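Entry 14. Ran structure prediction on the chain below.
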Amino acid sequence: MKAIFKNISLSMVAFLFVMLNCTNNKNATLLGFFSNNTNSTQEAAGITITESGSSTDVTEGSAVSDSYTIVLTSQPSSDVTISLTNDSQITLDITSLTFTSSNWDTAQTINVTSVDNSDTDGNRTSTISHAATSSDGNYNGITISDVSVNITDDDIPNVSIMETSSSTSVSEASGNDTYDIQLTIAPTNTVTVSLTFDDSQIQVNGSNSPVDLTFSDTTAQTLTITAVNDSIAEGSHSATITHSATSSDSNYNGISISSLTVSIADDDTAGITLTESGGSTDVEEGYNSDSYTIVLTSEPTSDVAIDIAFDTSQLKVKNSTTSPVQITFTSANWSSAQTISVKALYDSVTEGSHTSTISHTVSSSDSNYNSFSLSSVTANITDNEGTLLSGSIQSGTASSTGSISITSVDTSKSFVHCGFRISGSAANNFSTCQLNSTGDTVLFQSGGGSSVSVNWYVAEFSKGVSVQRGSETMDSSTSSLDVTLSSSVDLSRTFVIVSSRMSTSDTDKDERRTVMAQLTTSTNLQISRNETGIAIDVEWQVVQMDGAKVQSGTTTLSGTSATASLTSVDESTTFLIFNSKASSDVDGVENRFYTRGTITDSTTITFNRETSSTGSVDISWYAIEMIDGTVVQKGSGSVSDGSTTIDAAIPSSVADTTKTMVAYSNTVLQTDNLTSTSDQDSGNYSYQFIDSSNIQFTRGSSETRSATLDWFTVEFQ
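Output, structure tokens:
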């Protein structure tokens, strides 16, 4: 090593001397190397100056200052004092600041204000210089950048725009921001500064564009900027406020004024919300429907179309059997949820519980929504095998007193339906029919009057039907009784068949026999009448059909007609069964309480009687919509004076009359005496198929009475 140093030339020594003398320079890295500096990883010494808004701008005569900060880049070994030097055009709130080993990395702020003078100096600059002194050789005398201060002369005409914190930012969610406008010198005439802006994005001082300000001196005016909280998902965006001046003072008229950019934070997010009712979509074949809703979370800039695709062999969506079905959201309806109804189709296939998927495809010229990924909906489908007739309907004609043997049926899956042709007008002529407990006999009973001819139909089903039945006696003082069913029923699939009889031979007490039967709960059948005084016997059947959708209700017929509303039904598969109780003041006059009813359109049931002069009729009705392929047809017809029969033409031929039953109702018109009580025999009918296209209705006596019938044919599968 000594040998090496012996060979060092004078020029090399001089080079080393120069390098060592660099210790007074801010770059002391080499010196540190040669002086065995142990802190070789220390940050390089330096001083950082940061101007607010990237520049320092002040205006003569304004109390508003601008600022910049100074901070060291590394920890000094001794205090560092930085002296600031400025000229007479500006003032500084401090002229010296010190950094220690404790605060070296905390920026210190210098506020700069312009000195106001009366000279027309024009817009100009002033320089702030800086010098550092320290016992730390790395910082002593280190080079520090100057700060150039832009001074706006207030002694020349100008319109100053002064933003708070050097920018203007607002949010759609809340809050506002402000900025000032000020004339630099007083005008000789008033100056109007007009602000124009996109008022779909912002408001100025709570107003839409334009906003005018009037200046007569140099007093600053503050503008409050508020974002318009629209519903459009725009992300962070901006709006521009432009300024123009008009004045009789030529110095200000048309003067150039800077525009201002307002940064706007959005509070809207593009999205689509899908909500299933009850948290899932559960349907049953041909029966109950379910639904879900779709709504946008922000207003679209263009229409948003959603195609809803589904398996048309399984589902009907929005009552459509064609897939896809489309819904559209616009700027007008985007926030209104659209309901998507879902119904499972009856397919007569035994599948058990299964599912079907409903998918969604979104398209729009609004890029926020185009191809938006909207989740699919899984429809949980309960299988429904519907009702299936077991063989053919058994039918025949019998006397009203006694019984008739039939091929034994399962009473829990069978019901009997009868039509009566009465030969006399006494109240005790009316009959009832019922299956016996063993299912091998149809029982016919009357109150003991004249002979009655009965058409009876027994329908037995192999699946999809459950029947409960019973007989009740209402004593002479009982107006209402409740029957507890042995098994709970589904009220939306169940209807009631009821008939009643009494023993009096009076002709003016018919209304005491009339009863109204309605299901008040899933386990309670209520039977009621309006007039007591005589004991009556009631035969009832409660029929639940899995292959049916039943709507029920009550109404009162006070005039000659009344209506009841339905949720829309398919008229080709829907029939009506009803029962009624007459008020006491009908006094046995049949045209006051004989009532007919029909389904007049998909949402309306109409009931009629021939007179409204006295009394009223309370009605309990059941609209039975079959979903399993059962075919329903309807019609009406009149029997003229002197005639006992009517042949009613069926709109389309019945495929199999042995699988078809008839439900009918009728009125009777007393053209010669509106208070007659002798019309029971001219107002009750038996019926039978003449052939597949015609039904013959027959009454016991014409009694010179006309009558009208409403009827349904129900062809089971």
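Residues 10-20 form the longest helix (11 residues). Will compare against last week's run tomorrow.
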